[in-house]
Amino acid sequence: MSEWYKQAFDDLYLEIYSHRDEKEAEKFVSSLGRVVAIEGLVLLDVCCGDGRYLRAFENAGAIGFGLDLSEVLLERFKANRADELYRVVRGDMRDFPFRSESFDICINMFTSLGYFGTTEEELRVIRETWRALRPGGFFVLDHVNPTWIENTLEPRSLRKKGEVLVEERRKMIDGGKAVEKTISIRSVKAPDVPIREYREKVALFRKDELQQMLEQAGYAVVKLFGDYDGSPFQKETSPRLIVLARKP
After folding, report:
1. DSSP secondary structure string, the chain?
2. pLDDT surpasses 60 at 4
């Protein structure tokens, strides 16, 4: 499959996922704050998008920096933060443009891992967070729970967003090791003619697989969350698989 992630994260992405709001981010930061003292930490948001989590962590006292490949999402961030343009940069999450041991905490939120097609390429991302963290630093890796996806997958959905219709078709592929989503954007006035259509493919990592990858990079797993409210991870019912790991 082509490198879909290079084109997918644009203004339409913001519309499609607009239900992911500031309150969700604030809820998770509050939950994490019961485990990690956030105030004063220098944070890197890997795949920061338009800065939803950066803002929530900064509101909790962190000093936030962001990295993202999408020019559109970074421009959206900069439009709201014109006085702090230096805090976000464009780059590939497999090769950070930052010095080693620059940060106290790295975060990778909302299933921003699993895009590259091989485990080794995904490991490059995790190893880069390790390199960028100071000793004792934390890494938060937020992934969808594969079992929850298997149990609740909706093959097709259709919703109206303003003047467009968003149709999403989903299926498990690669023997259950990945999920593929085809997104069709159509005008309400001409629903039979797609304005745009693209596919997303994301590898699914189970708890043991993520833990093994993190340990292979040198991390120790500290805690598992099952959702943004800080609830414990339950294999059958948790929608998220959020791992808090630490660099010794």
Report:
1. ---THHHHSSHHHHHHTTTS-HHHHHHHHHHHTTTS--TT-EEEEET-TTSHHHHHHHHTT-EEEEEES-HHHHHHHHHH-GGGGGGEEE--TTS-SS-TT-EEEEEE-SS-S--SSSHHHHHHHHHHHHHHEEEEEEEEEEEE-HHHHHHH--SEEEEEETTEEEEEEEEEEGGGTEEEEEEEEEESS-TTSEEEEEEEEEE---HHHHHHHHHHHT-EEEEEESSTT-PBP-TTT-SEEEEEEE--
2. no
Average pLDDT estimate for 82-111: 90
Distance CA 181, CA 4 (A): 11
For the whole model, what pTM was predicted?
0.91
